[in-house]
Design a protein that fits this description.
Helices cover about 35% and strands about 15% of the residues.
């Protein structure tokens, strides 16, 4: 029987965010020693506040966990591949309806503890300013890559990074919410009442809207020329698109009747549990770049939040990603230097789960390369393969971050109803993933027996 710890090339993973954590975990699971380099707490990013691995800096929601959705299907694939992120998320989840949300501190602490205690993972707490010249390297430095590493990557790739702005929503203390106004409910009464709802009548909405679009913004260098990712659009930017835009977005009231009146409010602001005991609540969809004094003034106009105490204000930060189609193979290897792989939001995927999924791919392939085996290409009919295809073969001239959706999966041909198309895509995705997983397991079994 072969001993991979003796024969494998050295493997280094740079960055211990969601993608880096997954990559290191996959390499270690394959029986190979891995160096996991994380710059915190020596150096912090503008958005991180703890030294923990896989710290969630925006929402604490990891998206839908429903079977018949693209995000739910992606999670199924990741669980089948032994995702450390999803196992820790399931262990630390908080109520969020059909979404998977976590107590972010417990979640990060568990990921950190599992990796630090793994006998094949060597954690190095220092800033990486150079790339290793030997062995297999996974670059998972994230959208908030340090200035030193950004310069190194720009030199390696021969071009500056692309970038866009991302945002985080405010968090308030639950016991400072006026519960004579706010109420717990799920939309249309489906599932558990996992969201707190702050109802507005028309006059209250008008006052809030006027204050929101005229409030002072925090200055950001080059902000106006930067790309804004649609899923993290600041609430004030959404509002400027039209007076009623919020009513069809984060403040939509449908299916949330006010128990005081029995009728649907004019608008509703929803809050989601931020931690397991529900003592902190996140304003859903309220990412913003208002100044902190403006946030206090404007968001306290929301009924039920007049006396709310903020434990975190909304912030915006610049996210960096590379031109994946120009530089990456579907295996996530660098075209110009195949011993290097990239993972996470740095590749041009958007979303926590998408970032973690590419970390799984990079980790599996890093382990295979370290053992002298060819990397695995996932079929683009499954979610993981579709993400790898997006970052390696999208139209480079208009390349921008994307999360998983049915739009990324190959379309089923022929005239079909929308539900039939989705069903076709789901069935094809499950089958193609199952086939690829069988191939991976057969290869792993052969490796264990000492065959090539």
């Amino acid at each position: 029987m072969s001993d991979p710890t003796r024969t494998a090339m050295p493997v280094t993973v740079i960055g211990a965010g969601l993608a880096g954590a997954e990559a290191a975990w996959q390499v270690a699971r394959a029986g190979i020693e891995v160096r996991l380099v994380e710059m915190r707490p020596e150096v912090y990013t503008p958005a991180h506040s703890t030294p923990g691995f896989a710290e969630l800096v925006c929402s604490n929601s990891l998206g839908s966990d429903r079977d018949a959705t693209a995000p739910g299907l992606l999670k199924q694939e990741m669980r089948a591949l032994g995702s450390i992120v999803l196992e820790c998320a399931d262990n630390t989840r908080v109520a969020a309806g059909q979404a998977l949300a976590v107590d972010r501190r417990e979640f990060s602490a568990q990921v950190t503890a599992w990796l630090e205690s793994h006998p094949r993972v060597k954690v190095i707490r220092q800033e990486a300013i150079e790339l290793p010249t030997e062995g297999v390297v996974v670059v998972a430095t994230g959208p908030l890559t340090s200035e030193a590493m950004s310069r190194r990557l720009a030199s390696l790739l021969g071009e500056e990074h692309l970038f866009f702005f991302d945002a985080a929503s405010p968090i308030v203390e639950a016991d400072t919410v006026d519960w004579s106004v706010a109420y717990w409910a799920s939309r249309y009464g489906r599932g558990e009442a996992d969201y707190a709802n702050c109802p507005m009548n028309e006059q209250e909405y008008e006052a809030f809207y006027d204050a929101l679009i005229t409030a002072e913004l925090a200055p950001m260098h080059e902000f106006e020329s930067m790309k804004l990712f649609e899923a993290c659009m600041p609430v004030e930017e959404i509002a400027r698109r039209g007076r009623d835009t919020l009513l069809f977005g984060p403040l939509k009231p449908v299916g949330l009747n006010d128990p005081r009146t029995g009728r649907r409010p004019y608008a509703v602001v929803q809050l989601r549990r931020e931690n397991r005991d529900g003592s902190l609540l996140n304003l859903v969809g309220f990412q913003t770049r208002l100044t902190w004094p403006s946030q206090r003034a404007v968001f306290r106009l929301i009924p039920g939040l007049a006396d709310a105490e903020f434990v975190r204000y909304g912030v915006m930060h610049r996210n960096t990603y590379i031109n994946g189609p120009r530089h990456l193979l579907p295996t996530l290897q660098l075209r110009s230097e195949p011993r290097m792989l990239f993972a996470g939001q740095l590749t041009g995927v958007e979303g926590y789960m998408e970032s973690a999924a590419t970390g799984i791919v990079a980790g599996i392939n890093a382990a295979r390369l370290a053992m002298g085996h060819p990397p695995l290409v996932w079929p683009d009919a499954c979610c993981i393969g579709a993400l790898c295809s997006h970052v390696s073969s999208s139209a480079a001239g208009d390349y921008q971050p994307k999360g998983i959706s049915f739009g990324l999966l190959p379309q089923c041909t022929g005239r079909r109803r929308r539900d039939d198309k989705r069903r076709c895509q789901l069935e094809r995705a499950r089958q193609s993933f199952a086939d690829a997983l069988s191939e991976l397991r057969a290869s792993a079994a052969a490796d264990t027996e000492g065959s090539v």
